[in-house]
């Protein structure tokens, strides 16, 4: 059993903040010892902050005239979507690479690069189908909720649609072999909307959630 050090139950803030810093150091040390994670500082994990930004940009690329900037028109949306997709997809590839290093520490950089290219290429190729599935989801919400006055209202103001967009993207990544990145994406949606959909769930088209929380 790991021996723990007793620390005071109260301090004079901020003068004695160093005591808390030391206590946190001891807590990390004890956890690492109990989990045999002595080399934890060398392990990276996919970033929630980075994935939140990536998901926001992918959402705007999927629905540019509704979720993108106000100056967009049908005439310039293709160029904007192409420019918008480049950065988040590249960043998503970096997050997938981090997952591969966690799941398969023995993988070499050449094999890692090929696997990232496979996953990212298939994910990107599937974006048009994801957009069509989301269109069916929006239509289902409008058709089945008498309070909805337009499909645009469903897309723009229903938290369930944000959760469903996250789910559709996460599910694709889960199937392609990036389950940790997919799970983080699902938890981002859960935290933001109160709706928890596991990325491995098999859900067909025309999917809609009226109220994820509340009534």
What keyword list fits this structure?
mainly alpha; 215 residues
Written overview of the protein:
It is a single chain. This protein has 215 residues and is mainly α. Helices cover 65% and strands 0% of the residues. It is built from 9 helices and no strands. The protein has helices at 17-35, 48-62, 64-67, 77-103, 109-125, 127-144, 151-157, 159-176, 179-193. Helix 8 (159-176) runs antiparallel to helix 9 (179-193). The longest helix is centred in the middle third of the chain and has 27 residues, at 77-103. The chain is globular. The chain starts with 16 loop residues before the first helix and ends in a 22-residue tail after the last helix.
Show unreliable segments.
Answer: none
Shape: globular
Beta-strand fraction estimate: under 5%
Largest sheet: none
The oligomeric status of these chains comes to single chain
Q: Figure out the total of helices.
A: 9
Number of strands: 0
Overall average residue pLDDT: 89
SSE run: HHHHHHHHH
Q: Terminal Cα separation, in Å?
A: 48 Å
Q: How much helical structure, as a percent, in the residues?
A: 55-70%
Radius of gyration, taken over Cα atoms and rounded to an integer in Å: 22 Å
Structural class: mainly alpha
